[in-house]
Design a protein that fits this description.
9 helices; 6-stranded antiparallel β-sheet; 19 strands; Ubiquitin-like (UB roll); alpha/beta
Length: 365
């Protein structure tokens, strides 16, 4: 199932004109001709043009994009699916939006970290250039600032986990709500601190903001005891944490045992697959496109089971975010490897990277 960008917000007058001339272009759509003139003029999906690329640290860069039509908007902390062409093939990945939801220049931005051996992140960090066209998918995510904004805030992040938090900080700055904010960010080396200059600038401009950069290569991984010293009143703050699983697991346990878990909000870039799931039934997966049957145990994602059998299946993030691996279930039951929930979504789109077979199934990709 090919993915496409979000539906753009096209002016009603333009929609009416396109509808009026549609029959004149049969069998092609008006969009096909418009895209020959300018690929940004598509009304089938939202696209954007890269305005500039800004290096943030040694392995991370911000891609600033001007959407072709009015940006539908996002909440601080949400992510967007980004589609790019690499060697003639479209690839989709999900990236946190790091821009203020109401940017003065009209540009949105994502800030990918280079993953050696990857496909998309090296292209975005090293090769994409101003003028390149990208596809923009739907905006998603529930890791967002509440409204109204709590009076006292704590942000804890590590590595690229700071990306959704940066959108929150920029939004707070824009709305002049930086009254009592503590930011704790961990990176392996000083050269890997993303947004280091902007974090310093925010701290310098706002007396109510404290920024603590923790270099784990020198001090070791940050612990709850370290947090007690940096921010003694953490129990009284609405907290947003984002980063690798190891950090979030430790913080979540600490808040559950010693704080208020209702005031702890987290964003996992790597959801726990199988963390809460027991041993499932498994079954035979019938891939309708290739007419091949693959045996799957109750703990292996459909995607992995197919790949282990030699099938070339669509995939992207492998953690249930980017929707590149989506297929249509034609029959049978599935089990969600994150929650252990069993369902029978016949005819619905399902993500093969986070679901496994619960009995025999048929799926179309």
């Amino acid at each position: 199932m090919a993915e496409r960008g979000a539906r753009p917000h096209v002016h009603p007058v333009r929609k009416w004109l396109l509808h009026a001339v549609r029959r004149l272009f049969t069998p092609l759509e008006p969009d096909h001709y418009l895209e020959m003139i300018n690929p940004l003029w598509s009304t089938r999906e939202l696209r954007g043009r890269v305005d500039r690329v800004v290096p943030e640290c040694e392995d991370t860069a911000s891609i600033l994009i001007r959407p072709a039509y009015e940006w539908p908007g996002h909440k601080p902390g949400q992510y967007v699916r980004l589609g790019v062409i690499i060697d003639g093939v479209y690839h989709w990945r999900a990236y946190s939006l790091t821009s203020d939801p109401d940017p003065r220049d009209g540009l949105i931005r994502v800030t990918p970290k280079l993953v050696e051996g990857g496909v998309v992140s090296p292209y975005l960090v090293r090769k994409i250039a101003p003028g390149d066209i990208v596809r923009l998918g739907e905006v998603e995510g529930v890791f967002t600032l509440p409204d109204p904004v709590p009076a006292r805030l704590l942000f804890v992040s590590a590595g690229s986990g700071i990306t959704p938090i940066m959108s929150m900080l920029r939004s707070l700055d824009h709305r002049e709500l930086v009254d009592d904010v503590v930011v704790v960010h961990s990176a392996s080396t000083p050269q890997q601190v993303v947004f280091s200059s902007e974090l310093r600038d925010l701290s310098d401009r706002h007396p109510g903001m404290k920024v603590e950069v923790w270099i784990s290569g020198e001090k070791g991984h940050i612990t709850p005891a370290d947090l007690d010293e940096i921010c003694p009143d953490w129990r009284e703050r609405e907290t947003f944490a984002s980063g690798p699983r190891e950090l979030l697991d430790v913080l979540e346990e600490h808040w559950n045992e010693h704080g208020d878990p209702e005031r702890f909000n987290l964003e996992r870039f790597q959801p726990v697959i199988g963390g809460n799931a027991g041993s499932g039934e498994g079954g035979t997966i019938h891939f309708l496109d290739s007419e091949q049957d693959v045996e799957c145990d109750g703990g292996t994602p459909i995607l992995v089971a197919g790949e282990n059998a030699g099938l070339k299946l669509p995939y992207g993030c492998r953690i249930g975010i980017c929707h590149t691996c989506v297929g249509t279930l034609r029959s049978g039951q599935l089990r969600d490897l994150r929650t252990d929930e069993v369902s029978e979504p016949t005819g619905a789109s399902v993500r093969t990277c986070i679901h496994t077979a619960e009995g025999d199934i048929e799926i179309e990709l």
